[in-house]
Structures are given as structure tokens and as C-alpha cells.
Specification:
With 318 residues, the protein is α/β, with parallel strands linked by helices. It has 13 helices and eleven strands. The strands form two sheets. A six-stranded mixed beta sheet has the order 6-7-8-9-11-10, sandwiched between helices. Strand 8 and strand 9 form a beta hairpin. It starts with a helix and ends with a helix. Bound molecules: manganese (II) ion (MN). Manganese (II) ion (MN) binds next to loops.
Amino acid sequence: MTSSTSAAVARALADVPAVTILCHVRPDADTIGSGLALGLALTRLGADVEVAFPATVGLPTMLHDLPGTQLLVAEGDIVGHPVVVSVDAASLGRLDTLAPVFTAASESITVDHHASNPGFGDLDLIDPAADCTAVLVLSVLDELGVKVDDEIATCLYAGLVTDTGSFKWARPESFRIAARLLDAGVDARTWSRNLLDTHPFSWLAMVSSVLGDATLVPNACDGRGLVYAVVRHDVLADLSWEESESVVDLVRTANEAEVAAVFKEVEPDTWTVSLRSKRSVDLVPIAGTHGGGGHRHASGYSDSGSADEVVGRLLESL
Ligand code: MN
């Protein structure tokens, strides 16, 4: 089913003169890597391409050096071509301020791997079995017959290595794809370090403070346990927003809890909440009750209010 949809998306993109590619708000390596890889490929086929993400927050520093960033346009400079593709956005809402650009398209296409994605384009390539959106983009590029060079491969690898937690939960197919991308010229050592193992020095103090106040709720989730931590706006201080993204990977290591949550105060009283589960808890419906979505073992949502209110609302829903 996926391959037939990949072929349909490739047919829709094969001969178009111009394409707008949209990435989700608070962009990560999968949405930007997917967008730039697709953008570079369509550029090589002769299309006029623009890639954009909602201006709500900026591009994470670690993504500044990806190949293809010359295709990125500021929100105010978006042309909005007749064919628009959204990459890695689980809902129209994830396109935030760019949602009108998507809905204005004469042909709208989604490429995504989130289980919660209802399908919101004219053509939807959605495969929750894919480890990342980047591998779905690769399937489209293969249908298009585009050569995956080192630049395109690097963008795809960025999505693959981050969305699989450095291949910790990667499927066999993802290892095969990784080998192919490395053969195409990806500097995997450098990009793994850039994307997963690089933080400013002040990140250490932030993590120390946040983890020191982490809370274990052993009887939450029917006794399977919840561990959570709160990243207040002032503790981020001079750190950029994406530096709080790594905290959940530390919090979820607590053996006593099946579910981990990190509350990130992106602006005063405005929060994004990251949820992780190990095995038995499906997070999609939990995130859904709070207006969010994602994957079975990794989901998220947004909330507003004081820390106590936001934490209290999650505890009530578990
Ligand atoms: Mn993704």
C-alpha cells in the first residue's frame, strides 16, 4: 500500500514546475531533513522549490549546517506554489501558522509516519510502520528515479538517526537504509555527534537542575509508574528551546516507571509536554485527550497554565 502511494506521490511531483514544502512547528531533524532532501531532489529535476517551517521558533542550531538550507525561506517570503507537500506533520495544526499555505494549494500532499495522522491532504503517504518520515521521502525519491547523492543522503540520515534514537529502536529495514546512505557518502560519525551528542556547556547545569527535581509517581498508570520532570522557562535562560528536547531521554531511563513525561515551558505559562513509554502503555490516546498526538511510545501535546496545573492535568488523565 505504501509503495503504491509512494508512486502516486512521485507521479504528482514528477513534472511540476514549482513545489512548496512545509515542515512542522518546532522543527526537528526528521521534518527538516525530509523537507531538504525532497527539496534538493526536486531541484535536481528542475523544479523551483521553497522549504519553510512556522516562524514560531527558529531552526535548531544543530540543523544549520545540513545540505540544502539555501532552499529555506522565511515565513514572510513564502510564495505558496500550487503543489504543497507537508513532511512529518501529524496534523494540519502542526503546520501552525503555515496551515493556510497548505490548505490554499491546488494539490496538497502529506508525507508522514505518525500513527495519529488522520490524513489531511489530497494525497496522503502515511505509514506508521516507517521509523521516520525521511525513509518515506526516500521511497518517493526512488520512485522518481532521483540519484541519492551525499547531500540528499545526509538530510535523510539526519531524520533516520534522530527518530530511531541512534538506531536503538530501528527496524531491520532502517539499518539497510542507513547502510545505503553511508555508502552514498554520509559522514555518520560527525552527524551523529552534531545531532545527538552536542550541547552548549550551560546545558549541563540545566539538566542537573531539572533532573534533581524529577518526581516519581509509583502508583500512576495502574501501578506501572510515572516519572516526570519540569523544565521551567527561567532554567532554559540563554539556552535555545531545542536544548530541552533531550531531557526526556534522560528522564525515561528511570527503571521504576513505565511512562516518562517532561513539561517544557517554552514561553511563560506555555508548555509543550513530551511523553515516552517503554512497552505496555499506548501514548497516542493519552496525548489525544490533551489535543496532541504522535507515536505509541513517543507522543506529545501543548498546554498552558502554571506548572502545577499542567502537571495536575496529566496526572488526572493517566
Ligand atoms: Mn518524524
